[in-house]
Every structure is written in C-alpha cells, then in structure tokens.
Amino acid sequence: MERFAEKTVERARQGDKEALEKLVREASPGVFRFILNMVRSEEEARDLTQETFLRAVRHLDRYDPAYSFNTWLYRIARNLCIDRARRSSRWRWSPGGRGDDDRGDPMCDHPDPRESQLDELLDQERRRILEGAVGRLKPKYREVIVLYHFEELSYQEIARVLGIPLGTVMNRIFRARRQLRAALEGESAVVGRSGALEVAR
φ, ψ for residue 110 (rounded to 5)? Predict the structure, then answer.
C-alpha cells in the first residue's frame, strides 16, 4: 500500500472531503486484499472493508500521525476480522500474544508470443498454488506473510498492527516460510516480494 503524504492525511483530518476520498480510494485495494486473505470470503471481505473505512472516518481524530496511516488502517481491519471471527463458528482465529511456538527460532528482445502466453499461464498457476498454501496457514502466520510479502509492510509496522514484539513478528515470518516451503515441496515457487513470496532454502 502507498505511504500517504502527511499533508493529505492532515487535510482529511481537518474535514477536507477530497483528501478523505483520495485516502479511501487508494487504500481500499490493499485493505480488501488483506481482509480477503484472512476471512477467505469475498462477501465478508467487502463488508469488512467498508466497515474498516467507516470506522476510520468516524475516528479519524484519534489517528496518531507518529505512525503511518496505512498501519493504523490495517490495525482497524485486523480488529474487525477478529471480532467477526469471534462471532463465527465457521473458522477460527488465534491472534493471541507470543505462544510456545513463537520461541527459539533464528531468523529476449523479440520473445515468442506463445512463450509469453505459456509464461503467463505458469505464473497464474504458481500464484494459485502459492495463495492456496498461504490460505492454509494458521491465521497468526497467514497475517504476517500477507502484511509483509503482499502488502509490503516493514517488520516494525507489522509489530504495530498486530501489537506484538518485533522479534515475534520475525519468528512468525520465519516459521510461516518454513511451513510454506514444506507445502510447496516439489512445486516451482515464484520468488521475490512483489506479488510473490520467497520460499527458497
């Protein structure tokens, strides 16, 4: 997600409707992706995304400019996901603090168009496999992977969103990557941070 200009956020806080619309318009895709990865339902994700922004607008005066605006939004979105999970028996969320399993880990100039089409199909398939593997992670591992690799938040920002120590964030990412490596064993996984995930040994 884009790191919003402080002036835009401040104008929105002062009641500038145009600035507020800009924040909502540009932040919505990232917030929706994050929520969708957590609740695994497009309908619920749309509802929770709308609720996230309604709550953000209602409490914009509580935003602390010492932290990035998108970090504040993700924290609101995550809290709403947790609230929804507590009311639902269809899936389980275990956001908790640092548990036992969080301890002790280190951290061609003229290409053939047919080849391009094949590459695109392979990329789509790899992404489908990867997203499926991410979706099977426990929520506490899934959220750090989504926030770091897909939404590109820093370790420090993730720690603030989740309200957990920086070391716990790093350990959870380490454990999540290890689980993904196991799930993707034998598959050709894409690597890198942008829209993909580094799972190399």
Answer: -135, 75
pLDDT in tens, the chain (201 residues): 445 567 888 888 888 899 989 988 989 999 999 999 889 899 999 999 999 999 999 998 888 888 888 899 999 999 999 988 888 755 455 544 444 445 444 333 334 444 455 455 556 666 677 778 888 899 999 999 999 988 889 999 999 999 999 999 999 999 999 988 888 775 554 444 444 455 544
Domain range for 48? 6-87
Q: What is the largest CA-CA distance in the chain?
A: 55
Q: Which of 163, 145, 143 is nearest to 67 (CA)?
A: 163
Give the separation between CA 191 and CA 114, rounded to whole angstroms. Answer: 23
User: In terms of domains, do 58 and 115 share one?
Assistant: no
The Cα 50–Cα 82 span in angstroms is: 16
The answer on 79 and 148 residing in a single domain is no
pTM (global) more than 0.70: no
Q: What is the CATH number of the domain that holds 145?
A: 1.10.10.10
* 199 domain residue, yes or no: no
**Within a domain: 126:** yes
Residue 76 near residue 160, CB atoms below 8 Å:
no
